[in-house]
Q: What sequence folds into this?
């Protein structure tokens, strides 16, 4: 049996990466068009939009939920951004 390494499992985890479908669609497009990126720009944009949406959602809701005592599981990168003091 082929086993995925820990990083690959994280990327496939819907809770950590809510944009799995968009990621898969981008990869399928690349495979279908022999890795001609110009043919897959729509798929890439969908993936970028999805990641941006979830990134902004976590950044806007996580601090308020944490202050209210709700446990929020955020990926380490987002946790680092949330915890960082604002630069003025």
A:
């Amino acid at each position: 049996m082929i086993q995925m390494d820990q990083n690959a499992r994280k990327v496939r985890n819907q809770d950590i990466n809510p944009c799995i479908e968009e990621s898969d669609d981008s990869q399928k497009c690349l495979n279908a068009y022999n890795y001609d990126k110009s043919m897959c720009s729509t798929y890439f944009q969908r993936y970028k939009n999805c990641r941006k949406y979830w990134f902004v959602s976590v950044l806007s809701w996580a601090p308020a939920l944490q202050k209210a005592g709700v446990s929020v599981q955020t990926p380490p990168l987002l946790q680092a951004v949330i915890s960082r003091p604002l630069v003025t």
